[in-house]
Amino acid sequence: MDASAESRPLRVTAVGLDDAALLGRVLELYAHHKATLGFMPDTGFKDRVKRGTLLVAETAAGELAGYAMYDLPRQHVRMIHLCVATTHQRNGVARALVDEVSRRHADRLGVLLRCRSDYPAHQMWPRLDFAPRSEQAGRSASGALLTAWWRDHGHPDLFTGQEDPDRLLTVIDHNVFLDLFVRPQRSGAEESAALIADWLGDQLDLAVAPQLLVEIHKLPQEADRRHQRDLAARLTTLRPTHPALRAACEVLDHVATTAGMKDQLHADVRHVAAAAAAGADLFVTRDADLIRMLGQPAEEHFGVRTLRPSDVVVHLDQLAQAAAYQPAALLGTGYSMQQLPPGHDSELRELFLNRPAGERRTEFDRRLRAATGTPETTRRVIRDPAGNLVALLISSRNNEEILVPFLRIAAHRLQSTLGRQLLLILRQDARHAQVSRIRVADPHLSATTRYALTDEGYLQTSEAWVGAVIDICGPWTDILNAAATALPPTAESFLAEAAAAGPTTTNAAWAERAWWPAKPLDADLPSYIVPIRPSWAEDLFGLSGTLLARPDQLGISREHVYYRAPRPQPVTAPGRILWYASGTDRRGIGAIVACSRLVEVLIDTPAALHARFRHLGVWHRNQIDTAAAGGLACALRFADTELLPRRVPWERLTTLAANCRLGTLQSPTKIDSTAFAAIYREGRRGPL
């Protein structure tokens, strides 16, 4: 190696949408190092180019020295590939790439990657400021340990959360099973091998349905049957109930028969039906006919996505978001929340007793009686369209807090969605009661609910999960002081750290989510007024000329997405949105009507955006096409919308934001924190 090599300057940039030649060179470099990077289809690289998360390091002479490919789930960066050309190793290329990733996403908590302990790179991570975070056995045939490495960005520990709380329950068919565990060298098996790639870690919970055991039983050799049964036993085994399986088979058999599916594929129908009946998120197969015929019906009727292995790898974050939160499945359906009068104890016990966690019937009955013995207690349930109970929320309030002795969601494909909806409702309860603390004192919460509580910023004590509800639109120090009063003493150290760090973008964005409806005004968090047609305000918020909210609490979801043309006005996330419902059509309003957290801004084709966000509902593909310009649309993903009790009309708006150039509000307009505070506070004062 040339002694001067290390001093050669490097230029680190993102691969552009129109730079096909550079992308081709990246793919060539990937091919040379594929053995340690694992399978990634070309579409995976192209998808990251669209997101701006494929960086390259080039020398002054234009040589490709290396690349970094990553995703942006939740609040951190997840590194997928960090690849350095052999001729440029030990020249600071890896350092330059990682530093640039951290620089671009300094507002994120840090960078997470996973690496096998037997790879040479395992020794490199500490030199790049990574520290080992956890260790687990890898799922590849080598059996090598997999270490999770973390590069911290220096934000307070309060905001770390869990790495990947929402695992996708993924059912594999027999062919994918053979690819992964029996004959990994056979043709086409490489695509399936991506499902156990190191960077995926434990994001997929691979599972087998009873139908796979049926197919194994058909093998002619007893030794093969025994060997494959032993391999299958290492994975999660689904146990769908007989009524649910029969119902799913009936629906999908009808679809298959109508579509003229070949007789030999009817066994595959039962396989997909078992995945659907057991509440799986994904059914993975390389059978194109099966995907074409059953993919859409299985998703529409049961919420299970039927995909090729390569599609799972490319769209993992999108799939995880959709699985964790599916408000589209609630909108326009018969799901409802209602008060449950005293009694019904045996029915509640049968549905919500947490036997896997060791809860006993006598304990459940005792706690249920104790929880419903005061007039301040409310017992609310959610019923599905058939009238079945699917969730139970028992709460009471006093002068200091909302106490929740029962928070139960039945095993259900919308379990995570319903849990997150209930947590928002509890926050609304606390705000209405003017208390700043929620105490979830249910000792037998499901794993899904515990994950949701962690993600929502609740802290676990020995007796309960404690969350803060800070109804302050003001200085960061005021919000931290209120949080210190609401949270348990264990929060003192990281509250002090948060105070020392100040109202950074990351800290403020996290606080607005975890301590909703807190709004630190001295944070560097952008605020926008976004115009929206009254018709879309009605669809998204249940807003009309006379009504401010849908009567059904489940009708307004935690998250939504709004599409518009990708005009030059820059909009960046995280941030805040004040929604201005225009006054141009017959349902014209001409006022600020709501406030939301801006979570993500993404520009892509209408087809790609619809696929990514369709789980959030409301918009149809043709409506996104109409909003697009030049073949592209801009998606604004937003959350935790507050419908303002008092609309702020145009005349008043121009007065409150006199120092901002509002123009005619034909596109998103950035405003300063002073104007935001004035408008928001005006809207919160209540009806005229």
How would you characterize the overall build of this protein?
The structure is a single chain. With 688 residues, the chain is α/β, with parallel strands linked by helices. The protein has four domains: 5-154, Gcn5-related N-acetyltransferase (GNAT) (Aminopeptidase, 3-Layer(aba) Sandwich), CATH 3.40.630.30; 168-324, Rossmann fold, CATH 3.40.50.1010; 336-469, Aminopeptidase; 527-684, Hypothetical protein (Archaeosine Trna-guanine Transglycosylase, Chain: A, domain 4, Roll), CATH 2.30.130.30. Helices cover 36% and strands 23% of the residues. The protein contains 25 helices and 27 strands. The strands form five sheets. The chain has a seven-stranded mixed β-sheet with strand order 1-2-3-4-5-7-6, sandwiched between helices. The chain is globular and about 75 Å long. The termini are far apart. Mean pLDDT is 84; it is low at 1-7, 161-165 and 544-553.
Strand content: 15-25%
> CATH homologous superfamily of the largest domain?
Hypothetical protein
Low-confidence stretches: 1-7, 161-165, 544-553
Q: Structural class given helices, strands, pairing?
A: alpha/beta
What's the overall geometry?
globular
Q: Give the radius of gyration.
A: 26 Å
* Mean pLDDT, all residues: 84
Distance between the termini: 76 Å
CATH architecture level-2 label of the largest domain: Roll
Q: Helicity level, as a percent range?
A: 25-40%
Let me know the number of strands.
Answer: 27
Just give the CATH class of the largest domain: Mainly Beta
CATH topology of the largest domain: Archaeosine Trna-guanine Transglycosylase, Chain: A, domain 4
Main beta sheet strand tally, sense and closure = 7 strands, mixed
The number of distinct helices, counting runs of at least 4 residues, comes to: 25
Tally of discrete structural domains:
4
